[in-house]
Write a structure and sequence with these properties.
The chain is of the alpha/beta class. It is built from 10 helices and 11 strands.
């Protein structure tokens, strides 16, 4: 276990994954500093908040000073308010890694995603891949964490889809629903990130997927069965989705984007070529065993 002298600064520590990483680090005995433009106010002996903007060099440099480790859990899924995939996943990632190196931080965990590829035609996937490259250049010993699409309470996957399955008689599939998914529980991913600060020599890359691979249609059927819903699933070509997303992006808060459609064309599963949950002695929860806690059947 860690000592209180070993502080880990978590950027993105108020988000879906980041706040769970902070809790997992505390459980392992680390002192945690949550760096955010809007840091938590409920500080404790083990968790402190510090105001920091990952887009500002001086702010980042000050936040990482004196840290044993740093986590970059900042993410952006829809470009808005002057924030682009490049500014967040490449420029800000490089800035954080560079200042962590200058401050003699011992360990850096950079959260990326399954399938990150600097040569991808998808702006999101390409920027994730380029982000990994610039982080590795600035902080060669960084651990890159690539989770598959995660689920958990208040997620952006199981919860919103389940709301629709409860209410809609018909649900449109992406294509024929054959895209493969391997969703891990967010708590398992958070524990894996925390463990990289506690092992003797962390791996350079971890790919984190759940214990089962589903097609998108199979995934939806698991949710439908749990909800005892009768929703009919119908295929909808990706070309139609692309057109709908093009129109939706004109709205202030688009319900679907072309980037999200592109992501659903690609399998979201681990490659099996790098370290994963098993190397950290973590047995990931199954979706089926987790659903009763995430989606109580009697909740409207």
């Amino acid at each position: 276990m860690a000592t209180l002298a070993r502080r880990v600064t978590v950027f993105g520590g108020t988000g879906f994954l980041g706040r769970r990483i902070a809790s997992a680090l505390v459980a392992r005995g680390f002192a945690v500093q949550v760096a955010s433009r809007h840091p938590p106010q409920d500080a404790s002996d083990l968790v402190q908040g510090v105001e920091a903007d990952i887009n500002d060099d001086r702010s980042v440099a000050a936040a990482v000073q004196g840290s044993f480790g740093v986590v970059n859990a900042v993410s952006l899924y829809v470009e808005r308010d002057g924030q682009s995939f490049h500014s967040v996943h490449v420029e800000a990632a490089e800035r954080l890694a560079r200042h962590a190196s200058k401050a003699a931080v011992e360990r850096l965990a950079h959260v990326s995603g399954i399938g990150s590829d600097p040569n991808s035609t998808s702006p999101y996937i390409a920027c994730r891949g380029r982000g990994e490259e610039v982080v590795r250049q600035a902080f060669p010993n960084a651990s890159v964490i690539r989770p598959a699409a995660m689920y958990g309470p208040d997620d952006a996957l199981v919860v919103p889809i389940s709301r629709l399955l409860r209410r809609l008689p018909v649900f449109a599939l992406f294509g024929s629903g054959e895209t493969r998914l391997q969703p891990p529980h967010v708590e398992n991913v958070a524990e894996a990130v925390a463990q990289t600060f506690d092992v003797a020599t962390p791996a350079p890359v971890y790919e984190l997927g759940g214990p089962r691979i589903y097609t998108y249609l199979e995934f939806l059927k698991v949710l439908r069965r749990h909800l005892e819903a009768r929703t009919l699933f119908v295929p909808l070509p990706f070309g139609v989705w692309h057109g709908l997303a093009t129109f939706a992006e004109r709205l202030p808060q688009p319900p679907i984007t072309r980037n999200q459609v592109e992501l659903m064309r690609r399998d979201n599963v681990v490659s099996g070529k790098v370290s994963g949950f098993a190397s950290l002695q973590i047995a990931p929860r199954t979706l089926e065993e987790s659903l009763p806690q995430i989606l109580p059947k009697k909740t409207a």
